[in-house]
Amino acid sequence: MQIIQNRLGEIGTNVYTAYNEETKEAFIVDPADNAELLKKQLEGKALSLKAILITHAHFDHIGAVKDLKAMFPRAKVYVSAVDRPNLLNIDVNLSLLGLGRGIRVEADEELKDGDTIELLGTKIKCILTPGHTEGGMCFYIESIKVLFSGDTLFCESVGRTDFPTASAASLRRSIEEKLFVLPEDTNVLPGHEGLTTIGHEKKYNSFFQQGFLKSNFNRN
Predict the structure, then answer these.
(1) CA neighbours within 13 Å on the CB side: how many for 26?
(2) Listed residue (154, 138, 152, 159) closest to 197, CA to CA
(3) Is the pLDDT at 13 greater than 80, yes or no?
(4) Distance CA 161, CA 142 (A)
(5) DSSP character for 75?
(6) Theoretical Cys-Cys bridge with 184: which of 6, 194, 199, 204, CB 3.0 to 4.6 Å?
């Protein structure tokens, strides 16, 4: 599996396109913006988009979903069952606040904690990590040691917890009980800023070093 990283949208969201070189199938994680660019990248490698994975319902992670779905109608949109209603709630998905206009997105498939889906011939474990949003979900591919962490876990930081449905206590539990139990050499591909590993975050993440969450740890 190969992974392309783009930084797109108003807040610089990391958008990941994963693909299988042999089958020419692909999925995209958190298409924030610029569906046309993502389409061109897929077409440039003759890839077929099979799925769109959404880590959580905030506007800066769903901005291009509707356009991509129109371009690739057979691609299924996956999101946690908890966050699915928030895709349609402009107050909770923060689109009116962040963009000055409401964004509403439909999903095709609901995911529960512990579900496993298979894409590109690879098993992907769905890990519900409430905290940044009530239905935040990380996607873990054990076979290649990769975790798409959305805004749950950043490099030496974590997602904000002063938004609707957020909870600092829930975020701490999610990271400690569900992410920090993964192998330390797991590569963490977050929703913003640089890449990291589970082992690095266990040693250096400010949220856990200081024992509390400051609202200015990360703007996203």
Answers:
(1) 24
(2) 154
(3) yes
(4) 28
(5) S
(6) 199
Distance CA 167, CA 213 (A): 10
| Cβ pair 63, 103 in contact under 8 A | yes
**Residue 212 C-beta-side C-alpha neighbours within 13 Å:** 2
Tokens standing for residue 69: 């779905």
For residue 213, name the pLDDT band (cuts at 50, 70, 90).
Answer: very low
Residue tagged 């923060």 (tokens): 94
Sequence length of the chain is: 220
E-assigned strands of the chain?
Answer: 2-8, 13-19, 25-29, 48-53, 76-80, 109-111, 116-119, 122-128, 137-141, 146-150, 153-154, 157-158, 187-190, 196-197
Give the up-direction half-sphere exposure of residue 108: CA atoms within 13 A in the CB hemisphere: 13
**Residue pLDDT, tens place only, 101-148:** 899 999 999 999 999 999 999 999 999 999 999 999 999 999 999 999
Q: Where are the alpha helices (DSSP H) in the chain?
A: 35-44, 65-71, 95-99, 168-174, 198-204, 206-210
The mean pLDDT of the chain is 94
The closest of 166, 174, 32 to 86, measured between CA atoms, is 166
**Is the confidence at residue 46, as pLDDT, over 60?**
yes
